[in-house]
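Final report, section 2: Outcomes. Of the targets proposed, LrgB family protein is the one most frequently requested by collaborating groups, and we therefore present its record in full.
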Amino acid sequence: MLSTFITNSPLLASIIITLITIATYQLAAACQQKWQYIWLNPMLFTISILVPLLLLTNINYEQYSESTQLLNWLLEPAIVALGLPLYQQFKQIRFYWQAMIAILVFGIIVVISVSFVLSMWLIKAPDIAIALSLKSVTTPIGITLTNQLFGDSSITTFAILIAGLFGALLGPQWLSFLGINSAKAQGLAIGSASHVIGTAVLVRKSAEHGAYSSVALILSAVLTALISPWLIPLLQQFYH
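The predicted structure is given below as tokens.
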């Protein structure tokens, strides 16, 4: 019924679905701010509510995506806004750029290699192994690289979302548990592993956290795009 309503009244349906999405997110954000529960992460909460709702009302993802296109347009300036803490901390960050690149290159090689080898060992499906090994970059780059390397891009999208959510939910607490409390270290770790979702959470902790996470987000995307096209084919040779 609602899917037919979307087809017949796209503008009104778009307004209603967009308002529901925003209201759900804001409700979760208000609850998390009040009670400080990890599982009340606004993005995770919104997904948990909207997915059953869409299934119940027979609205497919394409219809939902078209109806909430305005939110997709607003996403780009929101991501650009993450550059503000980077600008604020730029004088300090430029003294560490060589060390940061070295750390991120090492981390990317380890993450891709371990993810690919474990996936091949447990699943023995090259397309899935490729998809899972590219889970720690932003979605557009991850999907593009997966398609170029003949992986399953739908799994890449899901893996990127899960990596982002887990990093945002548990990353800072896990690092603190390990005794890693430096804003620089936490920022680099979360930004490289959990991309935009993790960075958006760290920005709330401090400008320094957000700045280093933004740097890791950007550099990891560029470095992964340079490293994965030769590293993944190299790993595949061991399974021929």
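The CA atoms of residues 204 and 213 lie 12 Å apart.
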